[in-house]
Specification:
10 strands; binds magnesium ion; globular; four-stranded antiparallel sheet; binds adenosine-5'-diphosphate; 265 residues
Length: 265
């Protein structure tokens, strides 16, 4: 829980169940405008569920998602979602995928100034008319990032977005994400199981754990960008995330509850 004024995103989940099984309880997170927040936690602890709730993809929970103080229920163009796999339409060109929500393909999409600009930003200038099958995994995820930004969302949610690519591509995609997030001043909530990725990208790292109401000291990543991956600040923060995760995982075995262990500043 924080005392910062006017978060852009304010999420409270009192209770989320699948059938009778409780998956999330008493989770509270708020995110400031243009903040980048990483969410880590043991597998199965409810990270994707929480992200789907924030995205409006799951409305069957007790709680509330506020965007700029206004309650959200269901999908909104203010919140974009990027999944682990790019989920491009194989029969559409790169541009048509990026501009999909316009509902107009062909030259309209290929020449759309925003499409052209976004593709240049993600390093895919000249790929306007390419089909997804001709792209590498990393390029396809770049298209997904461009598509996620096309509608100019205020919040971008990412669920393990770089898990399926090779390590070098992953590093490049991380740098790209930071670049576009800062350029577009978009607020980011990113789920990852990679602690180093969370620390490299995030202003704060949150650990989703198992005991309702338990709060643990915050893990702030107060390091200027561009960041040095070998910085001692990251090493210290890494140790704290690992300790918190260790406690979260140990408790996952006991009660069937999940809560946010650590909210950091
Ligand atoms: N649609 C669903 N129906 C039933 N159980 C689900 C569903 N989605 C997720 N779960 C369960 O909820 C728990 C949390 O899942 P999830 O949010 O995907 O965890 P994480 O992303 O942290 O690995 C898991 O035990 C998972 O099996
Ligand atoms: Mg998940």
């Amino acid at each position: 829980m924080t005392t910062r004024p006017s978060p852009l995103l304010d999420v409270v989940v009192h209770d989320k169940r699948f059938r009778r099984r409780k998956v999330l309880q008493d989770v509270h997170l708020d995110i400031a405008p243009a903040e980048i927040v990483g969410l880590v936690g043991p597998s199965g602890c409810g990270k994707s569920t929480l992200l789907r709730i924030v995205a409006g993809l799951d409305t069957r929970y007790r709680g509330e998602v506020l965007l700029d103080g206004h309650p959200l229920r269901g999908l909104t163009r203010d919140i974009g979602f990027i999944f682990q796999e790019p989920r491009l339409f194989p029969w559409l060109t790169v541009s048509e995928n990026v501009a999909f929500e316009l509902g107009r393909g062909g030259d309209h999409a290929h020449h759309h100034p925003r499409v052209v600009q976004l593709l240049a930003e993600v390093g895919l200038a000249g790929y306007e008319r390419a089909l997804p099958k001709t792209l590498s995994g990393g390029q396809a995820q770049r298209v997904a990032i461009a598509r996620g930004l096309f509608r100019e969302p205020r919040v971008l949610l990412l669920d393990e977005p770089f898990s399926a690519v090779d390590p070098l591509t992953r590093v490049r995609l991380q740098e790209l994400l930071i670049d576009v997030a800062i350029r577009h001043a978009v607020t980011v909530l990113l789920v990852t199981h990679d602690i180093d990725e969370a620390l490299f990208l995030s202003d704060r790292v949150l650990v989703l754990g198992a005991v309702p109401g338990l709060s643990i000291e915050p893990i702030t990543v107060a390091l200027q960008r561009p960041r040095d991956r070998d910085s001692s600040t990251l090493l210290v923060a890494r140790r704290r995330v690992l300790e918190t995760l260790g406690r979260a995982s140990a408790r996952l075995d006991t009660p069937p509850h999940r809560t946010l262990l650590s909210a950091t500043h």
